[in-house]
Amino acid sequence: MSRILLVDDNESFLIPLGAALRRAGYEVETAPEGTIALRLFQQSPFDLVITDLIMPGKEGISTIIELRRLQPEIKIIAISGGGLLDSGIPLGLAQQLGALKTLAKPFTISEILQAIADSLSTASEGRPVAA
User: Measured between alpha carbons, how far is 131 from 126 in angstroms, rounded to an integer?
Assistant: First the structure.
């Protein structure tokens, strides 16, 4: 079972999404911002991190940078509603910093499940296939 760390400051988004991912068969831990997420990440391994970008406390871009420093191969999906900023700008920056996928809020459960499946299947990309 893949372990996912879900990071978002909006509890009315975080709780239902975490429940949906659990129903889909994933083990999910949640965090309301980056500092807590990084603490959880250092305590136990995760296969994937899904992080919002615009949050109080440690926001998503600095969380992604720190996650990459701790574990360069960690798979990351960045999500953002944009807030006062154009959501394309922070999502594009997140991708440049190593997010495998980006999703603008609102998105469907089907879209996030597909992004998760695609991200988790990239484990063998770039490696030679044994004959």
Answer: 15
**What span, in angstroms and rounded, lies between the C-alpha atoms of 110 and 126?**
27
Residue 130 resides in a domain: no
pLDDT of residue 83: 56
Domain that holds residue 64: 3-124
pLDDT digits (tens, 9 = 90+) for 45-56: 999 999 999 999
> Closest Cα partner for 63 from 89, 21, 31, 87?
31
User: Based on the structure, what is the number of domains in the chain?
Assistant: 1
